[in-house]
Design a protein that fits this description.
The chain has 1 helix and 5 strands. By secondary structure, the chain is mainly β. The site of zinc ion has 7 residues, from loops.
């Protein structure tokens, strides 16, 4: 079962109440404001701030990602 876009649209970051986005592989949600990653386990998003992981940003200067657009 995939997460529905309708569900994703109403979800918000529990910390800043801002917009979150689903990772391409649906492994979790990212809040780019808080730089937090909320994992999805068994199709259930885990929005506990205490269990969120730091998110460094894909391809944003870690040395292994894509170069930032000019
Ligand atoms: Zn946030």
């Amino acid at each position: 079962m995939a997460l529905s876009q309708d569900l994703i649209d109403i979800l918000a970051c529990p910390k800043c109440k801002g917009t979150i986005r689903l990772e391409k592989d649906q492994s979790g949600f990212v809040c780019e404001t808080c730089k937090l990653f909320y994992p999805v386990v068994d199709d259930i998003p885990n929005f506990l701030i205490e269990e969120a992981r730091p998110w460094s940003g894909a391809g944003s200067g870690t040395g292994t990602g894509e170069p930032a657009p000019a």
